[in-house]
Structures are given as C-alpha cells and as structure tokens.
Write a structure and sequence with these properties.
about 120 residues; mainly beta; four-stranded antiparallel sheet
Length: about 120
C-alpha cells in the first residue's frame, strides 16, 4: 500500500511563504494526477492544486497566482510552493491522487497556520 507523508508546514506571518513536500512510498507520480488538499477547522476538505502525469496544473481560484504545484518523479515527491499567504490559508494540508483512481489512505497532513 502506498504511503503519503506530508511535511513543511508551520507558523508564518501573512504575506509569508512556505514550501510543502509530499513523499510517496511508491512510484505513482508518473502514473496519476496528484493533488494538494486542505481542510480548515469546521470545513470540508478541498482540492487546491493538482498536477497531471504530463505536468499540466490546475488551481482553485482562491490560491491561483499564489501557489505553485510541482513534482519530482525521480524522488516520488510532490511540492506546493505557497507565497503571499493569507490567514484564510490556515488549514491542514494533505496530498493524494487527484484523478485516475480512488484515494490512497490519507496521511497525517501538515499544519499551516498564517497569523501575525
């Protein structure tokens, strides 16, 4: 079973940046579209960015122009560069497939807190 391990979160001031990483235990990145999801307290999990096996990207309107998703197939790792962070970006961030198959087991996620 593939395991997904997210890291890179933390506390950052508004306007700051963070880079999240998602390491997969298997070679899945070259097969499936992968996505970054987030879940804020009291809200449903939402997809904020996705990248296909061909490298095409898509973003939620709320993060477009501020977040960038990328991947390194050789390292089985997906990244999320987050710039110009806002308090409303505060959430636990997860990665998982975005299309092509059912979700793998969700990892622990990584907490991102944007606050002054």
């Amino acid at each position: 079973q593939v395991q997904l391990v997210e890291s890179g979160g933390g506390l950052v001031q508004p306007g700051g940046s963070l880079r999240l990483s998602c390491a997969a235990s298997g070679s899945i990145l070259s097969i499936y579209a992968m996505g970054w999801y987030r879940q804020a307290p009291g809200k449903q999990r939402e997809l904020v960015a996705a990248i296909t096996s061909g490298g095409s990207t898509n973003y939620a309107d709320s993060v477009k122009g501020r977040f960038t998703i990328s991947r390194d197939n050789a390292k089985n790792t997906v990244y999320l560069q987050m710039n110009s962070l806002k308090p409303e970006d505060t959430a636990v961030y997860f990665c998982n497939v975005a299309a092509g198959r059912s979700y793998y087991n969700w990892g622990q996620g990584t907490q991102v807190t944007v606050s002054s």
